[in-house]
Amino acid sequence: MEFDLFTFNLEYKGTTALRFGIHLVEEPLISKAKKGAEIEMPLWYKGASDYFMVETYGMPSKISNKIPYDYTEKLNDIIHFTLVKNGKRVRLFLDETKVVDIPSLAADQLGKYIQFYVREVDLQKDLVVAIANLKITEEGEDLRSKLLKAEGFSTTAILFQTASDKLQPSSFEFLDQLGEVLKADEFIRVQIIGHTDSDGDESSNQILSEKRAVSVANYLQEKFGIAANRLQTSGKGESEPLNTNSSAAEKSANRRVEFKKF
């Protein structure tokens, strides 16, 4: 699941108790469920905007973790969230940084439904806390069918070091899923196309996108033994943006890897 969190006009004095929370529950309820898992972040600007609270409630085994991460400078702007659930494991990314990784947070059927909470909003103040661009996808089960579509697909789940073609470890889970699909069907041949945002100059971004596509191919060849003649690589640099590159969230969306069968 991906979405953008937009906050505006948060300030130190008036947002002491303001909090944003994501709840993983098993029932479609408007009110709080009897059991669930919660990831909560205080929105007390420059007061307590430096940790996430991860807790379960109504569950046989209790989880309660306070995870330090300072997101103060991201407030009063747009933050891109990516929530990944694989079985019981739940990970949360802010922009490109992993901030939560709990192996057993989504026990039982938790995560079948998602609730969003904003707590302690002072309606007398001109505060804005809103979510937009919500997307929910299943990458694991239908990855093969995505590859077989004529138009292919692109993903932002493959991350690289800044201005580098070196893969970040958080990319390995997606690449491993892809590798297993390719290993299981030797007739699938794939084009790997790198894309960048508009930071930097055009020629450098073109070269970087090509190198990033090669890095993906190398990973699949080295770990899964995928034959080189089943993989083609190319780069589009910044030439095919999905948006105007006018914010951090938009740039994050443009830094993607595209896959098409050939």
Topology of this protein?
Layout: E1 2-8, E2 19-25, E3 36-42, E4 51-57, E5 64-68, E6 78-86, E7 89-94, E8 97-102, E9 113-119, E10 128-135, H1 143-148, E11 153-155, H2 172-184, E12 190-194, H3 202-224, E13 231-235, H4 248-254, E14 257-261
Parallel strand pairs: 12-13
Antiparallel strand pairs: 1-6, 1-10, 2-3, 2-9, 3-4, 4-5, 6-7, 7-8, 11-14, 12-14
Share in β-strands: 25-35%
The major β-sheet equals: 5 strands, antiparallel
Number of helices: 4
**What is the 3D form?**
globular
Instruction: Tell me the count of domains.
Output: 2
Q: What is the CATH C level class of the largest domain, in words?
A: Mainly Beta
Unreliably modeled segments: none
The average pLDDT score comes to 91
What structural class is derived from the secondary structure elements? alpha+beta
How are strands sequenced across the largest beta sheet? 8-7-6-1-10
DSSP summary, beta strand count: 14
CATH topology (level 3) name of the largest domain? Jelly Rolls
CATH architecture of the largest domain: Sandwich
N- to C-terminal distance: 29 Å
Structure description:
The chain has about 260 residues and is of the alpha+beta class. The protein has 2 domains: about 1-135, Jelly Rolls, CATH 2.60.120.200; about 145-260, 2-Layer Sandwich (60s Ribosomal Protein L30, Chain: A), CATH 3.30.1330.60. The chain has helices at about 145-150, 170-185, 200-225, 250-255; strands at about 1-10, 20-25, 35-40, 50-55, 65-70, 80-85, 90-95, 95-100, 115-120, 130-135, 155, 190-195, 230-235, 255-260. The protein has a 5-stranded antiparallel β-sheet with strand order 8-7-6-1-10, covered by helices on one side. It has a 5-stranded antiparallel β-sheet with strand order 5-4-3-2-9, with no helix packed on it. α2 packs across α3.
